Amino acid sequence: MVAGAIDKQDIIIPIPDPQVTGSPDAGARVGKQKCGLKVLMLDTEGIYFDWQSKINQTGRHWDILRTDDVESMLSFLEQSRYHVIAIVSSQHIHQSWRCLVKARALQPIAVRVQLPGMPMSEQQHELSLNHAHKVFSDHSTIEETARTLEYLVKINRLLNKQAIKSYLHTDSQLPTPPAIYEKLNSLLGSEQSSTDQISHIVSQDPALVATILKLVNSASFGLRRQISNIKDAVTLLGIRHLRALALSGHLTHKYPQNGSWSLFSFEHMNLRSLLVARLAHQLCVEQKASKIVQDQAFLAALLHNIGHLILASRDPAHYQSVMKHATEHQIGICCAEKQLLGIYHGEAAAYLLNKWNLPNPVVEVALLHHTPQLSADTEFSPLTAVHIADAVIPATSNGMNTDLSNRLSKSYLQRLGIDKRIKDWKGLIAQYRQMGQSLH
412 with 369: CB under 8 angstroms? Predict the structure, then answer.
C-alpha cells in the first residue's frame, strides 16, 4: 500500500481510503487498524506457529487462534465470531476448500483468505479464488499481508452497511444467482468436462440461450461470423466467457427496462459493458496477466455497471430525480446518488455480487471502478483493467446529459507503475472508443 494524496480530478466518494489515516472519519476509512482483529487459522503443517509474534512486531495486537485440525476449526467456527478465517495451503487442499465453504456459510461477513504454504497447481489456485477473498503469494511480506487483511475487513463491513441493506431490501427481494452458474463452476473444476456437457447445461434455459446468442452476435463482441447455436458459442468462447455471459444475461432478465424509463437505454448500457469487458480482457493479455485475472476482468466488466440498472429499475422516478440533481449541480452521478439515495450504484452492485459469493476481485471492481485509488492494489488486477477500459470508452448517452463517465485515476496508475503504458495501448483504446461511439 502506497501513501500519497488523491488527485483532485479523481471522482471522490465516501468509501474506505487506504491512503489516509488518522482522519476524523477513521471508522469508515481503511488505514491502520486501531482495534485488533480476531483471526482463526487452520495450519495443518505448523508453518505459521510464530505468526502471532510476527504480527505483534508490526505494532498490531490481534487475537489469533491457530489450529492444525480441520474438525477443531469447524467447531471454533460454530462457537465464536471472527474477522478473518485464514487457511494455510497444504497437501490436503480439498479439506481447505471445505473449511472455506463452511466458513462462508457459518460466517458470511468474515474475510476468508488462503496463506502460502505448500505449493498449489494453477487449477488449485483458481479454485481457491472461488472460495477465498484473497489468495496470498509467497512474496507478500507480513506488513503487506496485515494491511491487506485490514483493508478486506473494512470493505466487508462497508458491503454490509445497514443503509445498503435497507435501501435494496425495502420493496422486493434481491434475485438469487442462476443455477446454471453453479453448474458451470462445477464443470470448471472437472478435467472431464466437454463441449457437449456445457452446451447441454446452457440449453436448459432457452431464454438465456437467446440472450447469449444476441450478445455474441452483436457488434460489441466483434466476431467475424454469425453464431447460430450454443455449441458453437461454447467452442468459440470457452466455458469461462460463457459463464460470465450467462450471469450477465440472468441479471439483464431480472432488471428489465421499465416502460416509464427513457433517460438511457438498458440495452445500450449492457452492450457498452460488453465492450468494456472485451477491452479489459485484452488489456490483461497485453499486460501478460494470468488467465485467472483475464477471466475475472471480463466477468467484472460485464457486471460493473449493473448498479445503474438496479437503481433505475427499482424506482425510476426517484432515479430520474438523481440524474436531474447531478445535471443541475454539475456533479458526477456517484456523488448525486450518495446525496439523494444514501448509496451509489457501485455499492448496490457490489452488495448483490457479494451476496452471490462471486470472487472478491469481481466485487471490488463493482465497488471501486470509479475510485481505484482507494483500493489496496500494488499490482495490475481486474480492477486496473476494468477501470482503464471503463474510463476510455464513452459513457452511455442519456436524456439529461448527466455525467455518467469514469475518469482515469493518475495516482492509481502511477502507484502501479503503469501510467506510461496508456500510450502503448493507444491504438487498441482508439479502436474500442470508436465502437463505443457507435452505440450512441
Answer: no
